[in-house]
Each structure stands twice: as C-alpha cells, then as structure tokens.
Design brief:
Elements (H helix, E strand, L loop, with lengths): L1 H14 L10 H24 L10
Length: 59
Amino acid sequence: MSDLALHVAQTARRRHPQPVLPDEIKPYFAEMGRVGVALALKAGQVICNRDPLSPTLFR
C-alpha cells in the first residue's frame, strides 16, 4: 500500500495544479472510495462483534 500511496503522491505533485484524473472518470473513483469505506466499516463490525455470522454482512 505504501508503494501505491507514493505513486499517487508523485503523480499529484507532477501534475499540480492540473487534476490527475480526467473529469469523465472521477465518478468511478469516487464510487470506489465509497465502496472501500463501506467495506472497511463492515470489516470493523465483524471484528468488534465477534459474531460468526457477521461476515454475511459483506453480501
């Protein structure tokens, strides 16, 4: 993950002040971010609840 973070930071720095992503694909990246946050929250619930059935939340 640190390699990805470094790559993103370098790309942003190289293209500043222009945006890194073209406008037509920004919604896809925003949706991926929302999905990633939702999955992380569900994973946290599974860990905190220690319920063997809670992984079904991922469906």
